[in-house]
Amino acid sequence: MAKRNAPKKNVKKPQKTKPVEDWGGIAIIGGVRRPPPTTWDGVVARLAASLADMRGGDFLIVSAKHGNIYVQFAAQGDEMRVEAASNTYLDEGHRLSPAVRKRMLGYGWHAPWVRPKGYTGPPKESPNYHRDFVVPLPHQKIAECAVETLRDVYGIQEPAELQYEGFTKPAPTSKTSGN
């Protein structure tokens, strides 16, 4: 689940199909308008509520307004895949040092897959840090991990530095022949 790379040809763009509320950087899917959170505890609470609202095919990306720093969430039936930017996608000024990469593993993230020299096949796993959760989804724990990562690993200082993008992957279209 690589983040916002060059669009592929003949791929439908994901559609925003649910009501989305922007709340000062992060949004709630299907939520009621509320003042934006101004504390990290407020971000955790609002993010946990957003994650609880997600259904299969829903995607949520919480990112820094500047740089390619992000944590993204993909609801997949009874599971949720959560990914955080790795050095593959981080710009030069935000690359993670070996000590910080070790801290990511301490937060429970799985290491990103690295393409071996000479390998030309598809990736065998995500090139991002990733975690998989199954139902019952621990929304609070997922939100806390995401916020700790954004704040303590990537150095986001205030909730106002974050932005949100949410969408639902369109259902596959079936071709029918007229008889």
List keywords for this structure.
179 residues; 5-stranded antiparallel sheet; two-stranded antiparallel ribbon; 7 strands
Explain the overall architecture.
There is one protein chain. This protein is of the alpha+beta class. The protein has three helices and seven strands, in the order E-E-H-E-E-E-H-E-H-E. The strands form two sheets. It has a five-stranded antiparallel sheet with strand order 6-5-4-3-7, with helices on one face. A two-stranded antiparallel ribbon has the order 1-2. The protein is globular.
Distance between the first and last residues' Cα: 39 Å
Main sheet strand line-up? 6-5-4-3-7
Overall shape: globular
**Global mean pLDDT:** 80
The percentage helix is 10-25%
Unreliably modeled segments: 4-26
Tell me the β content: 15-25%
| Protein structure class | alpha+beta
How many individual helices? 3
Number of strands: 7
Question: Concise description?
Answer:
With 179 residues, this protein is an alpha+beta fold.
Chart the SSEs and their pairings.
Layout (H helix, E strand, L loop, with lengths): L19 E4 L2 E4 L10 H14 L4 E7 L5 E7 L2 E6 L13 H9 L22 E6 L4 H15 L8 E7 L11
Antiparallel strand pairs: 1-2, 3-4, 3-7, 4-5, 5-6
Helix pairs in contact: 1-3
